[in-house]
Design a protein that fits this description.
The protein is an alpha/beta fold. Helices cover 45% and strands 23% of the residues. The termini are far apart.
């Protein structure tokens, strides 16, 4: 049988004590734990941080990441290959290409990063690269554009461009 401890706070109501401890440990809130626990608090904190970092790493691998004007450069400038899909929700051909890009992201997990830029919500990046037709797929290596595909194309064409960028 498993028991869960709950704590009551007049400000926050009732919540799970493990969440309370996790918050206090991760945020370096002054510890008011009994001295018997103090030896283990740092070990617990390190393990929690490792778990969170592993969750964050796994969550973006194999998936496309929504990029904005403010996050675009940090994603594309990383070493390696980044594929960016410029799209809009009202664009029919974009809806055809989107699942293909998602498939490639899954298949090339760990080998390339994949992002999506909604051109309606992010005019800065769209103007920077003079995006006039969508969908436009851009391939970057180490922050520099190495290839581009304008319009909806089948998966083998995009995959060929991706393999070329990875070489």
């Amino acid at each position: 049988m498993q028991f869960r401890l709950f704590i009551y706070s007049h400000q926050n109501g009732i919540f799970d004590i493990s969440q309370y401890l996790k918050f206090r440990i991760l945020n370096n809130v002054r510890y008011n734990f009994p001295s018997i626990f103090m030896d283990n608090v740092e070990k617990i904190r390190e393990n929690l941080i490792r778990e969170i970092m592993a969750e964050n790493k796994d969550s973006s691998e194999g998936k496309t990441v929504d990029l904005s004007d403010s996050t675009f450069n940090s994603m594309v400038s990383k070493p390696g290959v980044t594929v960016v899909d410029f799209w809009a929700p009202w664009c029919g051909p974009c809806r055809f290409v989107s699942p293909v890009v998602e498939e490639l992201a899954s298949e090339y997990r760990g080998k390339a990063r994949f992002g999506k830029v909604n051109v309606d919500e992010n005019p800065g990046v769209s103007n920077q690269f003079m995006i006039r037709s969508i969908p436009t797929i851009m391939f970057f290596r180490d922050g520099k554009m190495v290839d581009m595909q304008i319009g909806a194309v089948p998966k083998p064409m995009l995959e060929a461009k991706l393999k070329k960028a990875l070489q």
